[in-house]
């Protein structure tokens, strides 16, 4: 069922127009690395790929909401940089998890251990953040006429502070939609509606993320005057990676700087132990048999792995400690990493929480994007949350999420009471309850390795930001930027936004002015 | 067996270095469209691809020969522009073919027919040329010491004037080798040999070819003052195309001009008849249901199809006539097309032939790249050719090639006498006999869908050039440029350089100073 919120007609294509569109989209993807690597079919000498899932037509999105997300990203960057620098607040907010949850306790332990190493120097951290939103339709009856007024509100789904993916894919697909628009693939569809390029916002996410890495690289020099002329950025990655096309362009862009910045990849785990060492001043050294600059002093560690508990066996823990304990700028640090847990998101919705970190004037902008969030512990808020979750009528308006990062394990609406009935009460506190975001659907067309889909779709906007800050004698934010966006759509009846599984499709927002 | 001509040691990699190199090469290819489309496995919603064959390590090539090829490309451009404008000379050179060979006679007939349409306007033609060379080792004993002196000479394999492929792939693979060099993948291999980037010549082939198309586009305006503001370039292509990655980037670059130049694709054959028409002044109009600018006046027709006899059924002939008879700039015209036949190459080796077209001072430069070529007809030269071909001893030093364009049907060395014995003498004249180019082999490493190959390889350099000229009241060359190169290597024991079959691998010349 398609909502009637959006005013534009759904796209209508003749068979020839659709064929033209598909043909052009596939060829664009092939020629621009908009692909998924089929790692299971990889051979030494070759590897097959397929186009990543995309929306064939940009999906409508309220212009004011998009602009709001862009405008407040600087505040979110500041907020999370400050939260990540507030050990005491995090220790309090996550105390149950540090005690009971294996992943949180491992990370916290590594953090504490890393503090025991020599931290005399100023600590610099880089955050590459992505704040994910959906549109919430807020309906209210005007008291005078009893007519229903509908307002579109930007509501945060989650905040990602670790290993944010999709920036490169989103950039390429944004360029693809601009190209398809330019060649006229959409002209005959939307008729006389404004299809100027201002409706398709530009996306410079690749360069934006890279500017963050470059700033961090230079900041490392500035704060380590003994650093050698050549230092480099180390990408910590997973071994068999479908999503290589999302990572590699960032490395290429570093190498392509006027003064090339060496960028190498290292698989999280044993390789980190074998191919790095810590120098006399805490510098991280990359000693790879394939790196001609070996030992290469590392300025920035960029994490694209290490986000799953399974990666933290003894060697994984030692690897993370090696990285965290070094002088290198971490993107992100462990304290930044744990800000990504949904428990932190929920703690920030508590009255007065934001005010600890940012000016009152900014709190309102941030708070307006919060959907109501409840813990399921035995606190006052937790008891409210439990009540909402256990009553099938109120549960229907909520989603139950594991408090730690990582999607795909959510429980929706009326399934929640049964789920809780089968779940020991002792671990209820590892979930948060979020009011469902009632996002408008629209008619869309998705193309992914799963097939072609035409029908109602739901979209999610991710706003990308970078923040570079230092701690030590004083806290200072050195850089704070909005850098681009991701935008994904999925069939309405699918709960997952997973790109690798072919459900989530990269898309562009077609900005429209709504009431 | 590897020749000992090249002075550098063959590359030696540790297992880790090789893995690093392969890994980086594959990822670079995936992210930069260095791919072949697996058209047989294409589905409506998806299409698998694989990396195109590449040489993992640039192959050595004498610097002086590379520079010679670049230097003389302007002369070759001029020569072929003039040959393509000399109907009388072509009619004489190809008279047997126009009479007997189905493909030549079809093209000639279309050309004559197109002349009957209104040709009052100045005719402008664009050539995108590729002159293919191999290194010939010329050995002579010095009379004084009886020592053998070896000299490397650049010898032309063939000259391509129609639908030259590989420019985009070569550009991307050149960039890949530069990148692999930058990240240090070759440093530990070649030791102290000069590995500055001057050894890896830049390749800007994509932009170069596009500059040619853009010049032709503007020249169309200049000579057709009534042309509408918006005209576009039409790519005439094959329907199911493995090699889409070689073509599409040229279109994108046209769209990405400051003032975008519309570029659309049209499949050679019935689609040309259905989706084009000729306007009142001979202008070619593109009337596609998917083109929002329809009818779009076409400034330049860029042919990437129509090079095989099989494409010229009645509809194919009508399609080519429609294009050729229009006002649009053809890339190439039919007369340019037929200059690509090897018979023309052989005719140009005749004494005095070059002097008809270009200054005497330039003839020497061109002639020095000719390998001895003979017809097998009953002319004086032809009788010499027959004698060489029929004697197994002299045949061993030759290769027999069909006189028309297209590789893969060559007969080599001692197989020639038997082949001729089984071939009716009446069609001997459809072959030319070329002295074998004795190219030095070197140790190489190739990676293609066929597998990894380590062993002796042979390389072929293609020099890309564009030429824009006009005919009418007077002949004028308006543009004449060297624009880039292609470089391919194959295993020594394979005769084919086919990229689609996985034999020919894109490579870069590693320029070395040889005696």
TrEMBL record, chains A, B:
Keywords: ATP-binding, Glutathione biosynthesis, Ligase, Magnesium, Metal-binding, Nucleotide-binding. It is an enzyme of class 6 (ligase). GO terms for molecular function: ATP binding; glutathione binding; glutathione synthase activity; magnesium ion binding. Binds 1 Mg(2+) ion per subunit. It comes from the Eukaryota. SUPFAM superfamilies: Glutathione synthetase ATP-binding domain-like, PreATP-grasp domain. Mg(2+) binds at residue 405. Coiled coil: none annotated. Pathway: Sulfur metabolism; glutathione biosynthesis; glutathione from L-cysteine and L-glutamate: step 2/2. Signal peptide: none annotated. Belongs to the eukaryotic GSH synthase family. This is Glutathione synthetase. It comes from Rhizodiscina lignyota.
């Amino acid at each position: 069922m398609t909502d009637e919120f959006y005013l534009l007609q759904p796209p209508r294509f003749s068979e020839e127009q659709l064929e033209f569109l598909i043909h052009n989209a596939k060829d664009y993807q092939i020629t621009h690395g908009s692909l998924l690597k089929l790692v299971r079919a990889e051979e030494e000498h070759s590897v097959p790929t397929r186009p990543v899932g995309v929306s064939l037509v940009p999906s409508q999105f309220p212009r004011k909401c998009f602009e709001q997300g862009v405008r407040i990203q600087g505040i979110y960057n500041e907020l999370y940089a400050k939260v990540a620098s507030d050990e005491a607040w995090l220790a309090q907010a996550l105390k149950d998890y540090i005690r009971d949850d294996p992943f949180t306790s491992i990370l916290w332990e590594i953090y504490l251990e890393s503090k025991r190493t020599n931290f005399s120097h100023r600590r610099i951290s880089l955050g590459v953040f992505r704040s994910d939103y959906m549109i919430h339709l807020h309906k209210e009856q005007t008291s005078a006429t009893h007519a229903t007024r509908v307002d579109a509100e930007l509501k945060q789904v989650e905040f990602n502070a670790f290993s944010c993916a999709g920036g490169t894919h989103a950039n390429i697909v944004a360029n693809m939609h601009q190209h398809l628009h330019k060649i006229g693939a959409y002209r005959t569809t939307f008729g006389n509606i404004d299809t100027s390029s201002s409706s398709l916002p530009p996306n410079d996410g690749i360069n934006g993320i890279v500017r963050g890495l470059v700033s961090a690289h230079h900041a490392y020099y500035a704060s380590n005057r003994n650093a050698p002329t050549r230092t480099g950025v180390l990408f910590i990655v997973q071994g068999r990676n479908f999503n290589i096309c999302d990572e590699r362009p960032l490395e290429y862009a570093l190498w392509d700087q006027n003064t090339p910045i060496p960028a190498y990849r290292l698989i999280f785990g044993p390789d980190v132990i074998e191919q790095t060492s810590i120098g006399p001043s805490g510098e991280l050294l990359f000693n790879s048999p394939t790196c001609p600059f070996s030992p290469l002093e590392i300025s920035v560690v960029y994490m694209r792995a290490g986000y799953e508990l399974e990666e933290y066996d003894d060697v994984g823990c030692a690897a993370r400690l090696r990285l965290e304990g070094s002088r290198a700028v971490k993107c992100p640090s462990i304290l930044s990493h744990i800000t990504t847990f949904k428990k932190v998101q929920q703690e920030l919705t508590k009255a007065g929480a934001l005010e600890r970190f940012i000016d009152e004037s900014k709190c309102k902008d941030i708070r307006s994007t919060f959907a109501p969030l409840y813990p399921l512990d035995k606190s006052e808020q937790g008891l409210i949350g439990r009540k909402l979750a256990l009553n099938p009528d109120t549960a229907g308006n909520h989603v139950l999420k594991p408090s730690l990062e990582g999607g795909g394990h959510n429980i929706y609406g009326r399934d929640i009471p049964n789920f809780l009935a089968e779940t020991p009460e002792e671990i209820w506190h590892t979930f948060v309850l979020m009011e469902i975001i009632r996002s408008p659907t629209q008619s869309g067309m998705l193309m992914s390795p799963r097939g072609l889909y035409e029908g109602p779709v739901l979209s999610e906007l991710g706003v990308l930001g970078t923040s570079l800050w230092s701690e030590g004698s004083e806290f200072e934010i050195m850089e704070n930027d909005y850098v681009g966006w991701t935008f994904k759509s999925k069939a309405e009846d699918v709960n997952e936004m997973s790109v690798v599984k072919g459900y989530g499709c990269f898309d562009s927002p077609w900005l429209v002015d709504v009431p």
